[in-house]
Specification:
The complex is a heterodimer of chains A (about 450) and B (about 180). With about 450 residues, chain A is mainly α. Chain A contains 21 helices and 2 strands. The two termini of chain A are about 65 Å apart. Classes of the chains: A mainly alpha (about 450), B mainly alpha (about 180).
Chain lengths: ~450, ~180
């Protein structure tokens, strides 16, 4: 309701462009306010270029300092103002602190020692390369007002997706209504015609004929053909049903934390081995422990606006990150672990039967096979599912078609030569190396 | 009229059968006792553990074969000590550049950048900010400090000791020092 109203209003405004002066006062007021804001900002920071400061800030400070939330170090918005008001420290103090904080702590500067102890004695890196102007620019950036909350915009943005969905539904509904009306019209026309016929005394003769099913039963050939057809068809479906028992292709369970492979492996191009690091070296491609998540999510406490999709909102994703924090026992406010952890019960998707042996490291490290060969387009999966059937026929097929990577592998030099001679080929497939022998996987 | 009723009945039956397929639960198995191991396997549920967690930590004090201790502590003093003194102690260490690069690109390049200039994919997309370049003068990294930070992590960076083993850590360290030299050129 709200959205459509908003839209209506937008339309109204665009329709009323001709009476532009009507908004003159409010526009000028708005610009005046903006100007005031900008001006007051520049008064605050005295000098320094906030835009240049942002680049410097992101390159040097942002690893440990966020503007509005504590991270490894304190939040830095209005840092200069706070220091001068609360501690009576001027910009000179900041210059020397940023360039050599360790030296100041050693020299016993009281506030330096206090802040160092307050933040669990985490030493701040020294930045001797930053000039006075650089630091001025950074301070100008930290003195900026926070951007106006974009909350108001979000529903409109989300509404964009919704309205398109709504309009689709509307069109479908309209079509349904149209067809219903047509059907009604046809029935009405038929009734009227019949009434006319009755009134005129015309009798519509209904020709008497054997009903179609009776004719069908009387024709024994047709009955036979149909019976055979039905038997074959049901045989086909029963066979198909029995063959898919035990195959979990397409299995897509609901996980305790909504982890999107699309965002991590797709959009951000994080290598599969980053999280599933044991795939390189062990039989199992392990489920990553939560400390691996925290390698990045210590710094990423919420997703960007652009991450949200029509289906999953930013709030939803942020909630999932909070689930991670709860499980790993991370307190965002103090930026430390509470020690209260809660295991996450992930649901295993890919599962080979006990009687088949499979080793990840053999395929990932030795053969150098891409993960996607078996796991499918994981980088496009919002929710992970089993892409391949994982049946024996599927394994064997790949072994028959895939050439073994023998170059630069001293282990294979001799056996490669002998086998090539035996089969009279240049390139050996996994099958020719013994990849079809029962005992290789079943023992 | 009768025919339509019959047809719709068949339709409903068919729809009922088809809708039974559900992707959120695993399929039936012929003989589960052949599919599921009797013995305890990786990630298989078991009543053997009091807390019921499948991924158990090894017993306290257990050490993998060929493991050597890293004795420098995770403190500021430890960092300074490693930075000043730590050298590669592994015997028969041969630097394998292609492998080191591969490991670096997987575990480090995503933030630190393929060239080590602090602009990895995540920094480029403004997910993680403030990743320093390896030639940062304030940090002046050394072989020892690089290894120490890979082992324990520092500030926002997490520890990588469980993703890389000792030998791999030294391979990556060597590669990082190479990138640093390249950047300082």
């Amino acid at each position: 309701m709200k959205i459509s109203y908003q839209k209506l209003e937008d339309n109204l405004i665009s329709n009323m462009r001709q009476v532009i002066y009507r908004y003159l006062t409010s526009t000028s007021l708005f610009f005046g306010f903006l100007f005031l804001l900008l001006f007051s900002n520049s008064v605050f920071s005295q000098e320094g270029d906030a835009a240049a400061g942002k680049t410097l800030y992101n390159a040097n400070c942002a690893a440990c300092h966020r503007l509005d939330k504590p991270m490894t170090g304190p939040a830095l918005r209005y840092v200069e103002k706070r220091l001068s008001e609360e501690e009576g420290l001027d910009r000179e103090w900041l210059y020397s602190w940023i360039r050599n904080s360790a030296g100041m702590i050693k020299s016993g500067d009281p506030y330096s020692v206090r802040i160092y102890n307050e933040w669990n004695q985490v030493a701040m890196n020294a930045f001797p390369q930053l000039s006075d102007t650089d630091i001025d620019n950074i301070l100008a950036y930290t003195a900026q007002e926070p951007p106006a909350p974009v909350v108001a915009e979000v529903p409109v943005g989300g509404g964009g997706g919704e309205t398109s969905g709504v309009s689709e539904k509307l069109i479908l509904g309209a079509l349904a209504v149209l067809f219903a009306l047509l059907a009604m019209a046809l029935i009405l026309v038929r009734q009227t015609l019949k009434r006319f016929a009755d009134a005129k005394g015309v009798v519509i003769e209904e020709t008497k004929s054997t009903p179609i099913w009776k004719a069908f039963v009387q024709n024994q050939f047709l009955v036979l053909v149909t019976a055979i057809f039905f038997l074959l068809a049901s045989g086909y479906y029963v066979y198909g049903y029995f063959m898919q028992v035990g195959i979990d292709q397409g299995y897509m369970p609901v996980q305790p934390i909504h982890y999107s492979h699309k965002i991590h492996a797709g959009d951000n191009a994080i290598d599969c081995n980053y999280c599933h690091s044991s795939a390189r070296v062990s039989k199992h491609s392990g489920i990553p422990s939560l400390n691996v998540c925290m390698n990045c999510h210590k710094a990423i406490g919420e997703v960007a606006e652009s991450t949200a999709t029509a289906e999953y909102s930013k709030d939803f994703y942020d909630g999932e990150i909070q689930k991670l924090y709860a499980a790993v026992g991370w307190d965002e406010a103090t930026q430390s672990y509470t020690g209260k952890t809660q295991p996450v019960k992930w649901v295993r998707i890919h599962n080979l039967p006990d009687f088949a042996y499979f080793n990840h490291s053999q395929h990932v490290s030795v053969a150098g096979i891409e993960c996607q060969t078996c796991h499918g387009p994981v980088e496009e999966m919002e929710i992970m599912y089993q892409h391949s059937p994982l049946t024996m026929g599927w394994c064997i097929n790949c072994h028959r078609e895939t050439n073994v990577k023998v170059e630069d592998n001293a282990y294979y030099t001799k056996i490669h030569e002998e086998l090539s001679k035996k089969y009279g080929v240049e390139e050996l497939t996994a099958a020719q190396m013994g990849g079809l022998e029962c005992g290789k996987c079943h023992y | 009229m009768k025919a339509t009723i019959k047809l719709s009945l068949i339709g409903i039956l068919f729809a009922g059968l088809v809708s039974c397929q559900k992707n959120s639960r695993p399929n039936f198995q012929y003989m589960p006792n052949m599919y599921e191991s009797v013995g305890y396997e990786t990630y298989s549920e078991s009543d053997a553990f009091a807390n019921g967690i499948e991924a158990q930590l090894p017993a306290e004090g257990s050490i993998p074969r060929g493991y050597s201790f890293y004795e420098i502590e995770d403190t500021n003093e430890g960092y300074e000590l490693a930075k000043a003194e730590l050298k590669n102690p592994t015997k028969d260490f041969t630097y394998d550049k292609p492998r080191a690069k591969e490991l670096y690109d997987i575990y480090c390049g995503i933030c630190h950048g393929i060239k080590g200039n602090g602009v990895g994919k995540l920094v480029e997309r403004e997910k993680i900010l403030g990743v320093p370049s390896y030639d940062d003068v304030g940090r002046a990294i050394t072989e020892g400090s690089v290894y120490h930070v890979i082992y324990y992590g520092k500030n926002t960076m997490g520890a990588y000791k469980n993703q890389l083993n000792e030998e791999e850590r030294w391979q990556v360290t060597e590669y990082v020092m190479e990138l640093k030299a390249e950047l300082e050129k």
